[in-house]
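[Automated response] Your request has been received and processed.

Submitted sequence:
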Amino acid sequence: MSHAAGPSVVVLGGTGALGGAVRSAFEAVGARVLVVSRHEPEPGETVSWAGLDLTRASSGQLAAVLAGAAPDTVVNAAGLTRGGTGEELAEANAGLVRTLVEAAAALPYRPRLVQLGSVHEYGPVCRGVGITEDLPPAPVSAYGRAKLLGAQTLLRATRAGAVDGTVLRIAQVFGPGAPRADLLGTVARHLATHRPGPLRLEPLAGRWDFVDVRDAAAAALAAATAPRASGQVVNIGCGQALSVRRLVERMIVLSGLGVPLVEEPGAGGHAAGPAWQRVDISRARLLLGWRPRFGTVRSLRDQLAEAGAPDRAAVARS
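Generated structure:
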């Protein structure tokens, strides 16, 4: 559908970390955005919101919300990343996509469905391997398996002509507004408290692909209208395997606090991650015209600022 006043967009899970960034990206280009989530927006936010528990909602309930909004695009940024049982993860991730597909198929037209997937759908790879979209997925975590099932549901329905969908498999996200419970979110929160004690974390031996949350949102924006993205899986990352330890150390340096870093088994602070992870982003450039724009230092600095950690220059002047 087309709208003279700008496109209509529904963001499922638009009050979450990534969903909020997606909402902002669409609003910045003049889209009319409806957020659908269980949680209300933060006080003071001017957001069009529909309250719906997406994990428990029926396809009929979701279809009614979509019909009222008449969206050109539906971005699924909802789901459960941790803290649940395998069954809960499956229902919140794969089950929700089934509901979305059924709801969208009942509409009299086909909005573009953009599924925000995860690099964890691929599973572990050997060091040095660049993960392409053609790599057969072999997830080992309950979260990765649930996200993969959701992606497969959307892709099958798109191939069958029932819906028009695209799957973005997103690397680890960082930057302002990134999940507070993730590794770098944990580090930022620790530094924001100005604690004099050491920062204790599980061993940081991995090398992971990261992407700024704002770049991930820009990819969703591009996928909404990219004609060749329909029915495709597209990797979204920086295309590099970044040392997790160096990122944490850089964040400490940027804070100017000189907090000692202690790595020890059992320390907690973050979930276990892969030894190696680097996604090939050639398809994103080709199909979406997308590339990451935020550099690592900018992302880390902005994440620190959002968490309330001190600015190094300000600390030096004090």
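Summary generated for your ticket: The radius of gyration is 20 Å. Residues 84 and 173 are 21 Å apart (CA to CA).
If you did not submit this request, please reply to this message.
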